[in-house]
UniProtKB/TrEMBL annotation:
GO terms for cellular component: cytosol. InterPro entries: rRNA_ssu_MeTfrase_G, SAM-dependent_MTases_sf. It is found in: Cytoplasm. Pfam families: GidB (PF02527). Belongs to the methyltransferase superfamily. RNA methyltransferase RsmG family. It comes from Microbacterium testaceum (Aureobacterium testaceum). Keywords: Cytoplasm, Methyltransferase, rRNA processing, S-adenosyl-L-methionine, Transferase. Signal peptide: none annotated. This is Ribosomal RNA small subunit methyltransferase G. Specifically methylates the N7 position of a guanine in 16S rRNA.
Length: 209
């Protein structure tokens, strides 16, 4: 028997506004099909809204222009952010075929005309430094993640990487990569305090050169 989807938190309406119905549809689809399609683990459905959907969506104000989500997986955060920010043009970069099929299905089903799905790894991107913002969530530690996210951002563009509670330690461990890619204005934003049970921590930096 599939796990029960948690009740929709009140914060969902605050965060998604008039896009809430699309967020509900995506959350329901992920709850119904995510585990069987190998997109989320068996323990994730009972905390899908709080741990994944809202955790991703609360970062929406940090995006603009053209954005890329590296290792988009189940669409966390890419599909969620594309729902929340229809004014941003999203490229979801994901190497696994079954995941790109899911991402394409969801973009079409939800009518997300602002989404393009690219089947490849971040380091295989050949479109140059064409993004205003590059994001990733739960992909790898910063020292591993920066070499295949920073090269996709235009000079003056930003990295907005959704991280866990140990982000400060990851920044210390990635000092060499921060220098190598000319990252400036490095900071950690804590988002969703007072809205979410567990706020979202985001590594933010400008790619200065």
């Amino acid at each position: 028997m599939p796990s029960q989807l948690e009740a929709e938190p009140a914060a969902a309406a605050e965060i998604f506004g008039d896009r809430l119905e699309l967020a509900r549809r995506f959350t329901q689809a992920l709850a119904e099909h995510g585990e069987e399609r190998g997109l989320i683990g068996p323990l994730e459905v009972p905390r899908l809204w709080t741990r994944h959907i809202l955790n991703s969506a609360v970062a929406a104000p940090l995006f603009e222009g053209r954005a890329a989500d590296i290792g988009s997986g189940a669409g966390l955060p890419g599909i969620v952010l594309a729902i929340a920010r229809p004014d941003v043009e999203w490229t979801l970069i994901e190497p696994m075929e079954r995941r790109t099929i899911w991402l394409t299905e969801q973009a079409e089903s939800l009518g997300l005309a602002n989404v393009t799905v690219a089947r490849m790894r971040g380091e295989e991107w050949t479109g140059g430094r064409s993004f205003d913002v590059v994001t990733a969530r739960a992909v790898s530690a910063l020292r591993t993640l920066l070499p295949f996210t920073a090269p996709l951002a235009r000079p003056g563009g930003k990295l907005v990487l959704l991280k866990g509670a140990n982000v400060a330690a990851e920044i210390d461990a990635a000092a060499k990569q921060v220098r190598r890619f000319g990252l400036t204005d490095v900071r950690v934003d804590v988002l969703g305090e007072g809205q979410l049970d567990e706020p979202t921590r985001v590594f933010v930096a400008t790619v200065s050169r």
